[in-house]
Every structure is written in C-alpha cells, then in structure tokens.
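--- STAGE predict ---
source: upstream dedup step, 1 unique chain passed
mode: sequence only
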Amino acid sequence: MVVDEGMQYLSSHGHEKTGNDVIFSWLARYQNAAAAGADAVNGTVGALLEDDGSLAVNGVVDAALRVAPATEFSAYAPLKGLPAFLDLAVTLALGDQREVLEAGGLFTGATATPGGSGALFLAANNFAERGDAVLLRDRHWGPYAGFLRGCQLKTATYPLLPQTPSEASPFLDLQGFKTQLESLATTQKTVMTWLNDPAHNPTGLSLPGESRAALLTAFMESAMRHEHTGHTLLIDAAYHLYADEPHGWAETLAEVLASGVPWPENMVICFALSLSKSHTIYGLRTGALVYLHPEVESVERLNDVMGVTGRQTWSAAPRIAQHVLSELHASPSGGSAWSDERDRLGQLLHRRRSAFLRACEARNVPVNPSHDGFFAWYECDDPVAVAESCANNHVYLVPLSGGVRIGLCAVPEASVERVAQALFEAMEATS
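--- STAGE serialize ---
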C-alpha cells in the first residue's frame, strides 16, 4: 500500500479504510435526478418508505416516544441495557417458542447495542479468534466484510443457492455449507457463521423449515465432531418481524432439540436484533445481541463479556427506545397496536413484492427467489452496467458483488412495473 507522506499519523489499518458506501452514492444519484425534475424511481435505500416517498413511521411507537419522561431521553442506560428491554429482546427473538426453549433447559441472555450493527460487532469481537475466517453466504450485506476486517477477521463463503436445487432444500446449498464448515473447523480454533434469515438482505430470500433444520443439524454435528473448536451460529434477524415465519429459527431449534439431538457445550446460538426496521426508529440506534446456551454460567459469562465490550466501545446503548419499547410491549393494548401498524407496513411490502415478481415473470426477467423483507435481487455478471442501464430510465438500484439489489422497501407500488421494465431493457442491453 502506498502511504500518503503527509499522513504518517494514520495507522496502517487506518490507511486501509478507503472508498464511499455504494448504497449512499447511488442514493445521491437518485436524489440529484429527482432534484433536477426527473420522474425518478428510488430503489436504493434500506429504509421503508410509504408510496408517497415519505419515511414510513410506526405511529404507535412515535406517539409513545413523544410522551416519554425527559429523564428517559437524557439519562444513561445501564451498560448492558435496561433489564426490561433485555427481557423484551429475548421475546422478540424467540416469540412464543421462548417458554418452550427455556423449559427445555436453555438459558437466555442479551446485551443492548446501538442497532443491529452493534450486535454484529459484539459477535465479531468476541466469538472468533483474530485471523480466523467467518462463514457467510456469497451474497450478503456488504458491511459484514467491514465489521469482520475491523476485528482482524477474514471471510469464507458458500453459494447462496445450490447449483442443482433439490425438492427437499431448494434454497440452501447444504453441501457447500458443510464443506466450508468442515474446512474451518479443522483449521481454526473457532467457527462462526452469520446467517441473515429470514428476509435476507440483499435478496429477500427466506429459508423454509426443512432447510433451517438441515443447516442447524449440520452445525450441531460439526460442534460435536470438533469438541475443542468453539462454534457460534449467529442469526442476523434484522428483518425477521416482516417475514411470514418471524420466529422460524426458534421453532426449528425447538423441533431439533425435541428430536433428541444433544446441544454441544462448545456451541452458542445468537440472534442479532435490529429495532430500526421493526419499530421504524432507525436513528435511535437500538438493537440487541441475544444468546442461548444450556449452561447458566455460560450465559452469565457472556453477559459480562458483552457488557465490557460495549463499555470499551460505545459506553452504553441509547436509553430512550429501550424504555419506551419495554413499556409499550408490556401493555397488551400497546403491543397489539404496534403489531397492527407493523402488519400494515408488512402488507405494503407484500403488495410491492408480489407485483414485482409478477412483472418480472411476464418479461422473463430471472430475478432470484424472494419471499420477505425489504429487498429483491437480480443476479448478473456486470452489476454496474445493469444499474447504469436502469439509471438511463431514471430507475435507481444498487450494484453489488454478483448482482443488483432492488429496494422494494422504497419503490412505490405504482412504480414497480417501471423497475421490472428497466431490468428487462438492461438485460437485453447487457446480454
């Protein structure tokens, strides 16, 4: 690396931090086109917008925030989070399977974080030895790589989809996962995999129950074979409350354990939660890392480790949303009202996705399987060329490694046909 002679004060790893976020650069292009008067379509952002282009805000959460006591805005939260919020975080992760899992011998813990990104950082910082590789699907949220590099970690990948989908598991390359898992388990002291499911960013893919069970069983078997290698399965649940099966992983875990598969003591399962999307409070930076293990001592130790890491990184996560959401969900009427509004926003996404998939099918545009959440995905060899072609029609999408991300969360339902048509023309132009 060539180091600027005038910037010797930057460390070597500081010099490695270059470039602009591709998502925000394409958002800027949309904004510039719209400001110039173009009839532009915004498919770039990762926040849910109403059909009129305004930010979708859950009014129930907003109303509760506006009547919260001033001290809840101003005071520090406990370093590990407000106890009531930590309890809520476990429930949001596990749903009605929480009682089943805890009755079955699992202990749960949680640490409050500044958004889902904070939860990912806690995991990267503490569950993998420096220099180890973390196992990801080859299509994943781009900032994963930055979190891992910042913790001196590498990445290993397996294909998002199998080359030959089977009827039993059409959306999981189980063999690819097992092969990479075995390679890491035999060469590293730790094995961690991050799985953004359900409602995967950037594709909208959600694994069905049989695929979840196959992956979980493979991971548990690996931990049992390699008893001296730590195994961490992290479910990135950023969008799970907009999925048809929001607590599918908790259900699968309960089913696998009920079948008699033993929990290896060298394995922990985590959920990285983001309240940004589910409660439309992106800027309040509220999330949690939830973890499960059959030994209470292990969970208590994780509480300490994660609390210390947070203290040494961001001090304490913001307090206000922890307080307000704990109070809101503790009230049957408040929780029900939040759920009704969340369901309205979920239906907004569902209508857009259904219309988009129909429009692509009518034009023979081969978008990836897409089920839930904020995004859809067009796999291609030259994502920049496809995105540029779409931009020529004032449809702005995001080119990423291996394809183009379509932010259905931002595209008005009335503009969905334009997106499909722009992709069709881009496909014709780049084929």
